[in-house]
Amino acid sequence: MTLMSKLREALLGLRAGRVTLPYPLAARPVPARFRGRPIFDPVKCTGCGGCANNCPAREILLFDLCQEIRILHYLGRRCTYCGRCADVCPEKAITMSHEFENATNSIGDIQQRLELFMSTCQRCGRCFKEPTPLEQLKLKGYRDDDLQNELWVFRSQAYREKEPAVRDVEIELD
Amino acid sequence: MLARLCQKMCKRSLWVYHANSGGCNGCDIEVLNVLTPYYDAERFGIKLVGSPRHADVMLCQGPAMRSTAKALQRAYAAIPAPKLVFAIGSCACGGGLWFDTYNVMGPVEKLIPVDFYVPGCPPRPEAILYGVAVALGLVDKKTAPVKLKQLELPIPRYHPEQLRGEGELVVYQRAQKV
């Protein structure tokens, strides 16, 4: 009896055919609404920084080199591909691509860096620096995120005084 | 050195040990998806083992957390010498969405050296298989850092030198929609 059931199982298994995908050797399409890596279009981007202000993972850094050049640095290490940057972008310069094969041996490979021209007021340059610390949290005006240490900088006095709590805490492991 | 190590290791099968140091289990489910017959990672000799002492590869999911840091380091130390570490998911690659909370220390590379990164939240099972194939040398990696530069201002600027007088009117030559 058990032998018969085993044989029947084998027949069922044979009838199912081959289900394994030939994946790494043949391409596999993704669903149409799949969100992969965001792609930044430097031609459309106006450098408003909406993506950087709304990124939940704080992975888009802005740095104002001078009056007219702003650097937008997408790191993508902890990007969850939520698509919020593409959603808030007023110029539709960010598209969520279908790229998911982002495996690398160095984490710096998935970063994108844009150098953008910033339009200036013809009379006074860019003159919209917020006066109070509370208004600076709205993140308009100049931004100087920490590109070396890849840190998003809140424009508050608390950050200026001392380092953020997460980075400098050293705990004893053994 | 890493390439040589891979060449040396990949003559044989990779046995993976699957360590979650505080993730949300999304990446765990995707890793277990890879081991099903549908994706069938055993084609490449990949087998899930229960003990780090039997493993060659450690699959890390979840960020380096304060509560599991010591256990993760001990598990890494228990793997015999030619070993690879895969960071799977955006938590393990970069610390995750909650990278700055009090109990998250950041990416797992703060605690153990990581050789391959598979970003995604969670990565597709195909993406994990692709990472394994990159490690085995079956395919080349597709990503490279991108640097882009605007050469021209996207919005036309107002240039007073381009004002031309036409009779009584003053006409701006490069009148474009702003």
Short overview:
By secondary structure, chain A is an alpha+beta fold.
Question: What are its keywords?
Answer:
heterodimer, A: 174 residues, alpha+beta, Alpha-Beta Plaits, two-stranded antiparallel sheet, 6 helices, elongated, B: 178 residues, alpha/beta, Rossmann fold, five-stranded parallel β-sheet, 5 helices
What does this 3D model show about the protein?
The complex is a heterodimer of chains A (174) and B (178). Chain A is of the alpha+beta class. Chain A has 6 helices and 5 strands, in the order αβαββαββααα. Chain B has a 5-stranded parallel beta sheet, sandwiched between helices. A two-stranded antiparallel sheet of chain B has the order 4-6. Chain B has a single domain (2-136), classed as Rossmann fold, CATH 3.40.50. Helices cover 25% and strands 21% of the residues of chain B. Chain B has 5 helices and 10 strands, in the order H-E-H-E-E-E-H-E-H-E-E-H-E-E-E. The model of chain B has no long low-confidence stretch (mean pLDDT 83). By secondary structure, chain B is of the alpha/beta class. The chains are: A alpha+beta (174), B alpha/beta (178). Chains A and B meet through strand 5 of A and helix 3, helix 4, strand 6, strand 7 and helix 5 of B.
Total beta strand runs of chain B: 10
Structural class of chain A comes to alpha+beta
The radius of gyration over CA of chain B amounts to 25 Å
Sheet with most strands of chain A: 3 strands, antiparallel
| Domain module tally of chain B | 1
CATH topology of chain A: Alpha-Beta Plaits
How many domain units of chain A? 1
Describe the strand arrangement of the main beta sheet of chain A, using strand numbers.
2-3-5
User: Helix content range of the residues of chain A, please?
Assistant: 10-25%
Query: How would you write the strand order of the largest sheet of chain B?
Result: 2-1-3-5-7
Give the percentage of residues in beta strands of chain A: 5-15%
Spans of chain A with pLDDT under 50 lasting ≥5 residues?
156-169
CATH architecture of chain B: 3-Layer(aba) Sandwich
Largest sheet of chain B: 5 strands, parallel
Shape of chain A: elongated
Q: Give the N-to-C terminal Cα separation of chain B.
A: 55 Å
Whole-number mean pLDDT of chain B = 83
Oligomer designation: heterodimer
